[in-house]
Amino acid sequence: MRDVVIIGVGTTKFGELWESSLRDLAVEAALKAIDDAGCDRIDSLWVGCMSCGLFNGQEHLGALVADYLGRTPMPACRVESACASGGMALRAAWMEVACGQSDVVMALGVEKMTDVSGGKATYALAAASDREHEAFHGVTFPGLYALIAVDHMHRYGTTREQLADVSVKNHEHGSHNQYAQYPHKVTREQVMSSTMVADPLRVLDCSPISDGASAVIVAALDESRSLTKNALVKIAAIGAATDSLSLHQRKDLCEFAATIEAGERAFKTAKLSPSDIDVAEVHDCFTISEICVTEALGFFERGRGGPAASDGATRLGGKIPVNTSGGLKSKGHPVGATGIAQVYMLTKQLRGEAGPVQVKNARRALAQNMGGTGSSNVVTILESGS
Amino acid sequence: MSTANSWRQIPQRYRLEAGKCVKCGKLFYPPRLVCDACGGRAFEMAKLPNTGKVVTYTVIRVPPTEQADLAPYAVGLVELDNGVRLECQVVDCDFEQLEVGTPVKLEFRRIQEDTEAGMIHYGHKAVPV
Asked: How far is residue A82's CA from residue A50's CA, in Å, rounded to a whole number?
């Protein structure tokens, strides 16, 4: 297997982007990544997108993006693993280069969610859960994570304030992100008095419905020096794993077994441990999910994710800064784009280009992207200075 | 939901029929074609008990279109007396009354109506006892 490096990254702004179409967003992010790399060559394209079928009535996204990018007959294919579609697209691109099939491959994530009403968006997102045995009974996605939150609070004493502090911290980080959908700070009181969505989760515990796209270009290390002048960021490992689609098939709701498994696979391949990581982007689709996955990744002991959110350990300057981009909460969550947007931010961190949220001397970074209630998980470990 | 989809789920939804692995005895609800414990592919029908307890719960304040007229409503993850778990609405109770461990019984109820195919879909909801 060949070493694979990131040579270019690009992203659109995230938000309610009325003037941009699905294809416009994808192409804008792709062009930004091409310009960033300073390399006009792409051998192949993987597009991560959860549900362009339900959101836009459009499937067959690989060829559509290849066409509008002016790159036919380049091979292109869409990858779908719900909200982990972006991370899985990067995994496909990484494997394609590592195995020697292609030298320069783009992984692109995109979702255009605001062309449908809130009800239709809820229906589309519920497709990531078990339609016949969860959504059928009226259990929404905030509802599923609320079930997890109540269990976590009951078993570990996690508090409503600790949930709020995840949102406060991510909005503070996101206030520095020019691409964020909600780049403003919130207070604990504002979070705790915002509209209830599914008890105990309130609207400021939930990531928003967003439009956006992000792109990453990966290349074989051996070829990369002739392709770009950028500081190289190596993909040290990508681990992936699955768990049951429905919550009721699990004995332990707070465990996030597929996050643990994907993390262990990635750490093993990279020959690293959680304490080696300098900065992380994790899948905070809801405040409770950041608490659960920072435990599952081994940054904190089981049941200690709540206190860690409140004591500053995950804040910029803390033990392990988490979601310096603002996370899904503040930056926005165009679901297919999220896994790539995480890697966009971490590449900026490892190149020393993260501006006001730069983690000093960041050399190793971790992205954790998941679909559904953690049913699909991708953990990517990046290293600088290859 | 199409008519055929609704029809083929009648045994599990209306009668709470689970699949029991003939080889190792593991129960699956809904039924499956292969056992994740032993790889067995032969199953016999096992009827679920209709009593259990709430493992965790929430109150849905922002509902999907299909349940728009029901909100707010409670949903729970229920563990039945034989250990099988399922998700369903928890009804006929004050939300404040709900807690982890609340004993419930499953009752046959209307779940969704006026759907695309013009059908009324039935199933089970939990009622605190």
From this structure: 5
For the segment A150-174, what is each residue's pLDDT rounded down to a tens digit? 999 999 999 999 999 999 999 999 9
Q: Count the domains in chain A.
A: 2
Please give the pLDDT value at position B1.
Answer: 79
Q: Closest to A199 (Cβ–Cβ): which among B30, B59, B65?
A: B59
Whether A125 is in a domain gets the answer no
> Within a 10 A sphere around the Cβ of A16, how many other Cβ atoms?
12
Q: Give CA–CA dist A313/A302, Å, rounded.
A: 15
> Within 10 Å of residue A194's Cβ, how many Cβ atoms?
17
At A58, which CATH number? 3.40.47.10
Do residues A155 and A111 both lie within one domain? no
pTM score = 0.97
With 70 as the cut, is the pLDDT of residue B115 above it? no
* Number of helical (H) and strand (E) elements in chain A, helices listed first: 14, 11
Alpha helix segments (H runs only) across A141-256: 141-156, 160-174, 188-192, 221-224
In 3D space, the residue among A259, A85, A298, A280 whose CA is nearest the CA of residue A173 turns out to be A280
**A333 carries an active-site annotation:** yes
Distance CA A62, CA B28 (A): 38
Is B55–A133 a contact, with Cβ atoms under 8 angstroms apart? no
Q: Which of B54, B60, B94, B122 best tests the A interface by mutation, with the highest count of A CBs <10 A?
A: B60
Interface test with B, best of A248, A252, A253, A286 (most B CBs within 10 A): A248
Which residues from B are below 8 Å from A133, CB to CB? 30, 86-87
Task: Residue A180: name the closest of A341, A290, A350 by CA.
Answer: A341
pLDDT classification of A302: cutoffs 50, 70, 90:
very high
Respond yes or no: is residue A83 known to be catalytic: yes
Which domains does chain B possess? 3-128 (2.40.50.840)
Beta-bridge mates of residue A382:
A235, A365
Lowest mean pLDDT among A15-29, A263-277, A362-376, B101-115: B101-115
Predicted complex ipTM: 0.97
Are A50 and A191 found together in one domain?
no
User: What confidence score (pLDDT) does residue B114 get?
Assistant: 67
Nearest residue in A to B113, CA atom? A136
Nearest to A137 among B59, B95, B111 (CB): B111
For A203-357, list the strands marked E by DSSP.
211-220, 233-242, 279-281
**Chain B residues touching A148 at Cβ < 8 A:** 56
pLDDT at position A260 is: 98
